[in-house]
Write a structure and sequence with these properties.
five-stranded parallel beta sheet; alpha/beta; 2 domains; 4 helices; UDP N-Acetylglucosamine Acyltransferase, domain 1
Amino acid sequence: MRKISLGQILFFQIALFSAIGLGGFSAWLLLGGLPLGDFRGVVLSISGIIFIYLYAFLIYRIFLRFMPLKEGYLAEGSREEFTAQVNILFYLLIFNSLIRTHFLPVPLMRLIYLALGAKLGDNTYSAGTILDPPLTFVGSNTIIGHDAALFSHAIEGSRFSLNAIRIGNNVTIGATAVIMSDVIIGDGAIVSAGAVVSKGTRIAAGEVWGGMPARLLKAAVAENVKTEDLGAKD
């Protein structure tokens, strides 16, 4: 694992303190003059935390707008590595508490993932964890099961790379499954509970995969299968 540099830490701290300052000021500006009674401190604290996260989302998206994550190997000292390391700091120190919690309802988690840059189709929800939302592309009517984990980064010793995960429509990812970087899953495929899909795996439409590491359990079945005529013959 590569060391996070002082410059990356300072860059992140500026973003973090900006979110904290703006969030606290907004809460005080909007609610500070209200007669909140004995719960004044509690209401202001909770409101401040909500505003801090909202500003953190905004600052993070602005950061990605000007310094987007790049797929591929990240050379040491490069701009791409700087961006990826700052992205890790955003995740570990701000968004981890939201992404890894089981307190928030799944529909709200969908909104959080969208706010963090994930591409999720209609009626697609995750009860698991998407660790790299900007590099996660999921189609419509797909479900990611409880405690499943998707991560588009690979840290192998000193080697650091980013590769997107692309999942099609009507896909089922079972509970506690792990989907590694650079995985592509076709429409209608199923990844069974507890499976570990290795980096770079290609799962075709309609296939069923499972195991550790995941392997093909059932090939796709054509929709229009020619059946025998079961009627009586003359």
